[in-house]
Queue: 4 jobs
Job 1
Amino acid sequence: MALILGIDPGSRITGFGIVREGRHGCEYVTSGCIRLGDGPFPERLKQIFDNLSELIGNYQPQVLSIEQVFMARNPDSALKLGQARGAAIVAAVHAGLQVHEYTARQVKQAVVGTGAADKVQVQHMVTQLLGLSGTPQADAADALAIALCHTHSSGLKEQVGAGALIGLRSGRMRRR
C-alpha cells in the first residue's frame, strides 16, 4: 500500500495531501497548507523545503505527485511558482521519492471528469472520493486531487501494461 504525497505549490501557500493507495481504492491520510507569509522569497523557499522534508520524514511516502507549471499572465508569478515547485521537488528527491508531474487539466479530468472543473468542484469531488467529513481548504484539496490523479494514472498504466502483455502472450498483438 503506497503512500502518495500530492503538492499544490505556491509562493504564499503550498498545499499538501497524502493518500494511501490500496487494493480497494484510496484512503485519506493527512492534508494541510504550509503558509509562507511575507518574508524574503529565499526564506519562503527554505520553508517549503524544510516543511516538506519534515512531512516526508514523518509519513514516509514513496511518491511525490506535483502540478506542472502553467503559463501565468504575470511572468514574475510564473517564475516564483516554478521556484516553489523546485523546492518541493528537491525535498522529495533528497528523500528518495519518485516524482511524477501532472497538468492542472489532467488532475481535474482524473478527479472531476472534466479538465475545465473549478476549485469548488475539485473540493467537492475530493471530499466525496475520500469520504471526508468536511471540505478541505482549497490548496489542500488541490494537493489531494493531485495525489488522487497519480493513483488513477498509475492504475491506468498498470492496466494498459498488463493488457499489452496479455495481448503479446496470446499472439493478438503484432508489431508494426
Job 2
Amino acid sequence: MTTTRPHRTGEPDPADAATAPLWRAVQAFRLVTLLYAVGQQIASVRYYENQRLSWVLIALMVLWSGVSALLLARWHTPETARIRTLVVAGDHVVVLGLITATPLVADYDWYHGHQPLPTTMWSANAVISAAILRGPVAGIASGLAVAATIITMRQQWGQDVWADATAPVLVSVGLALGLAANTARRAQEQLQRAVRLTAAAEERERLARQVHDGVLQILSYIKRRGTAIGGPATELAQRAGEQEIALRRLISEQGAAPGGDAATVDLRPLLTAYAAPDVVVSTPGDPVRLGRWTAEEIAAAVAAALTNVELHAGPAARAFVLLEDTGPELIVSVRDDGVGIAPGRLSEAENEGRMGVSRSITGRIAALGGTAELLTAATVGEGTEWEFRIPRG
C-alpha cells in the first residue's frame, strides 16, 4: 500500500496523474471483457431458468461499466482520488452482487459447473482497479475476495481450490498491477523532485549572479581600497574581506548539488567559495566527494595559502586555484603571480618560531596523509605555487 504526499488544494494529486495511463488501459480491458460477458450471456441465456432477470443483471453490468468509465476519465481534477475510491468500491459491490445473484438466474446443475453470471474475466476489473488504487496488497486481497465468492457460489471448494485457475489468476493480476502502479507513483515522485531541484538550482544561480554583480564586488572593492588606504581603514578592509568569503561560501554551498552519502561533501563548492576578482578557481565538472572533515581541512589549507598571497604577494597579485582528481589522489594547486618568496625563506621563518604556514598549510595536509610542497620560481618576483597531494581513502 502506498501513501502520497499532500498537495495544494485545487490541484490534482501527482500520484493520480502517474497512474492515469494504467486507468485508461483498464477501461480498454473493461470494454473487452464487457463484450465477452455479453457474448457469454447470449450463448448461455437459453439454459437459465429466469432469463428476464439475467438480462436485467447484464443491463446493470453494462450500465455500471459506462458510469465507471466516465468517472475514471476525470483524472485531472482535485477529486480524482475520491472518485477512483468510489469507483473501486462500486466495482466490488457490482461484481460480488452479480456473482451471488447467479443462483437466482440458473439452477444448481448449471452454475455448479460453469462460470458465474458476470464471467470471471469481467470480475477481474474489480481486482485490477483495487490494485492500481492501493497497490499489490489491496490487489491480492481483492483477488482472494472475488475468487472466494466464486468458489462459494459454485460450491466447488474441493475442486476449484486445487484444480481451478480462477484464484491464482486473480491474485496474480492483483499483484502485478499493484506493483506496476507503485512503480509509476515512485517514478512520478522522482521526476517531480528532480524538476523541483532543477528549478531551485536555477533560482539559486540567478540569485548568485545578482549577488556577485552587486554585493560581492562592493565588498571586494572595500577590501582593496581599505588595504591600500591603511590606518583605521585596514580593519574595515579586513571585515569586508571576511564577509565576502562568508557570503561566497554560503552561495557556493546553496548551489551544491544534493545527493550522495550524507557523510560526504563535494569539495568543489568549498573551493569555489574563495573565487573573487583576483582569485580564479578551476574545478572538475564532476563532483569530488570526500569525507566532510577531509574536505574542510583541504579548504582551510587553501584559505591559508590565499591569505598568504593577500598579505605577501603584493596588492596587484592574482591567485589561481586548480583542483585535479586523478582517482588515487587529489592535486590542489594554489599559484600566484606576485612578488614571490626567496628560496629557503620558509625554513628560516620556521627556525625563527613563526609556525603559521607550517601549522595552517603543511600541518593540515600532513594530517590527511598528503604532502604540501612550496614551489618557488627561479628568481624572486615571479610568484609562488603551493601543490597539495592528498591520497583518497
Job 3
Amino acid sequence: MSSTKSYLFTSESVSMGHPDKVADQISDAILDHCLTADPTSRVACETMVTTDLAIVSGEITTKADLSRETVDKIIRNMIREIGYTDPSIGFAAKTAQIHVNLHAQSPDISMGVDVGGAGDQGMMFGFACRETKSLMPLPIYLAHRLVENHAKLRESGAVAFFRPDAKSQVTVEYNGDGTPNRIHTVVLSTQHDASVIGKNGKFTDDARRVIVDKLILPTLKAERPDLIKGELVLVMPGKASKKPKEGEIACHINPTGNFEVGGPHGDCGLTGRKIIVDTYGGRGRHGGGAFSGKDPTKVDRSAAYMARYIAKNIVAARLAHECEVQLSYAIGYPDPLNIWVNTNGTTAKGVTDDQLVDLIRKHFLLTPKGIIESLNLRRPIYKETARHGHFGRELKAFTWEQTDKAAALKKDAGL
C-alpha cells in the first residue's frame, strides 16, 4: 500500500547488559550447556535478576550435569562475560547470590512431544523486507547495531566510562511508498561511571558528544550513509529544543540526565520480557511467546525461526518486496494448523499470496521434527541469540538466516 504522505516508524533495542537480556543470556547459557551434553534435552528455563541476586527455575529433562555447583558456575561465567565484574555497582559475578530450582518436564507435555508433536500451542510469525541487506526492517536493524557497537567500545576500552546496561532507539522517516527516506531521530541511554558526572551532578555534554562521535555517527555511516541527510544535533535534557533544520538527526543521549545506577541493581530483569526487541521492533506481528531458555521442541522458538527463514527466502527470491508468515500449532500435534502469508500487495507480477502458501508447503518441513532437522537446531547456539537480536545477523550458526531456498522458490514460481 502506498500514499503520498511520509511517516515515521520507531524501534528500540537493548544491550547485553540490560537486566532482561542478562536473564535471557543466563537461560540460554543453561540451554546450551544441556544441548552440549545431550542434544535431546528438554529445557524450559526462566531467570530473574536483581540486586546481587540471580534466581533460575524451570523444567529440564537432560543427561547433562545440573548439579548446584555446575549451574552456579554457568551463571557466574555468563554474568562475567556480559561485563558485570565490579561489586560496587550492585551486581557482579563474584558476589551475586545464586538460587536454583530446576525439575523435570511435565510428563503430560512429554507424552505429546515424544511422538513428534509440538511442545506447546500458539502462533508464530516471521517477517522479511528489502530495507536492508539482511532483509530486516531498518529501524530495528540500526537499533541493534548501536547496542552491539556500544558493547564493542565498552569491551575494548575505547569508551572507558561505558557500563554494560544500555538502550537504543531509532526513528526512520519513510516515503509514502514505504521506502526509507532518512534517519530522523536516535535515542541512546547508557549506564556510565562517575567520571562523566559534572559539577552539577549530571551527565556531561562532553560525554554526549563522545557518544555521537564514537558510537552513533560511525554506526549510521557504516550501515546507511545515504540516509544521513543532515547534521547529528544533540537535544539537551531540560532545555528548550530548537526546531531542527531540514534533514537534521535529533540525538537524545541519556535524556534523564544521569544513568549511573543501572543493570539488575537498577531494575529487575526477567527472561522473555524483550520479545519485540528479539524480533522485528514492532514492524511485524508477534505471537506472544518468548524464545530464550527454550529448547527447539518449543515451537514458540523453533517455528518463529522457521517463519523468519521462510519469509527471508521468499523476499530473497524476489517473489515479494516484503513478506510476513504465520504458522500455528496445537500441543502434541505435529503439523501446523495453518499457514498464512501477507505480502502487503508487494508480490512479483503473476504471484499471489495463496501461491506462496503452496510453495511453502512444498519446500519447507513444518513439523517440529522437520524444523529442528532442517535448521539443525539441536546445537549449543542460543546464548549468542539472546543479545543483539535473533534475526538479521549473518552468523553461520543462525541457519534461519540462510537464503538457500530462494533459487528453488523462484524457479518453481516461474520467474
Job 4
Amino acid sequence: MKRLLCSFLSLILIASISWAQDSGQGAVVPQSPTKAVVVTRVLPPFVIEDGDKYTGFSAELWTELAKRTNIDFTWKRASNVKEILAAVDSAQAQIGIAAISITAAREQQYDFSQPMFESGLQILVQNTDSNGLSWRDLLGFLTRGAMPYLLAILGLLILIPGHLAWFAERSHKESVFSQSYFPGIFQAMAWALGAAAGQQGDVPRSSYGRILSAAAVFVSLLFLTYWQAELTSSFTVQQLQGGISGPDDLPGKAVGTTTGSTSAAFLQTHGAKLQEFEKITDAFEALEKGKLDAVVFDAPVLLYYASTTGRGKVRVVGSMFKKENYGIVFPRGSELRKRVNEALLSMREDGSYDALYAKWFSASGSGG
C-alpha cells in the first residue's frame, strides 16, 4: 500500500513539473525596458529636424520599432554616415539609423538589421532650363569637342580673305574699302565675316575680288553646314543637361558628395574629380553656385531635394545606378538586433511599413 501511494504521489509530482514547464514555454514574458542611444543625421526625407524632435521615414520607422521592442531611447546627432559608424564603434551609441548602406566592408565590422529600404545612387545637376547658361557653361561649350577648331577656322575665314580682298580692291576707283590699311582692313574683314556667315553685302569691284567673293561663298556654305550641326548637338546637350546625363559622363567632372559615403567610394574609382563635404546640403549649395558640375548621392535624397528646397534650381538626370540596401546598424554581437529584426518583420506583415513608406515616398514619387 505504501509503495502504491508513493508511486501515485510521484506521478502527480512529475505531471505538475511537466505542466509548469509547458506553461512557462508558452507564456509571453514581457521584456524589461532597454535603454539605448540612437545616433542619426539630418537627411530629408529620411530624417528631418522638427524643433526638438525628428520626423521622416527613418526616424518614424525607428520610433515604431522602439515601441514594439520596448526600447527606451535618446537621439544622438551626427553629421554624416562616417560619424554614425564611429559612434556605434566607440559605444557612444548602441544603434545607428538614417540611410546607411549595407556593404560587405561594413558587415565585417558591424551587425546590420535586415534591409529596411532599397535605394541606389543618382545624379543631380543645375537646372539650366530655368536659369539659362552660366559663364561656366558657356566657357565649357566653347572649349569642348570641335568648337575650338570651328572658331579657329572662322578666324581664318575672316583674316585671310579679308586681307586678300583688301589688297585686290584697294587700288580700284570704285572700291568699297578704304585705300588705307586702317580702317580698310577692318572693312575688308567685316566683309569676310559676312561672307563666312553667308551674307555678301557690298560685292568687290575688281575681277580678282569677284572671284574671291565667289570662292568665299562656296567655302562658307561648307563651313556653315558643319557649324550648324555642331551647334545643334553640342549646345542643346550643354544647355539641357549640362553635359552630364549618366555615370558615364562623370569622369573628369567636378562631382560632390559626402565624406565616407558609398557614393564617394564610387566616384573615387570612376575618374571623377571628387569633392567631399561633411553635409550633403553643403554639396547642394556648391552645385547651385556653379562650383560643381554634379552631385552624386542617394536617389531618394536627391529627388526629395529637387522637388522641395532645390525646386527650379537643380534637377535629377539619368536613371538610378549602383543599387543598394539601407539597414539599421548595431555593434557586433548586439542582442538588440534580433528584437529589432522581429519587430521590422511584423511591421511588414501587418502593413504598417507600407503605410509609412507611402506617407514619405509614394505621393512625391521620390522613392528609391
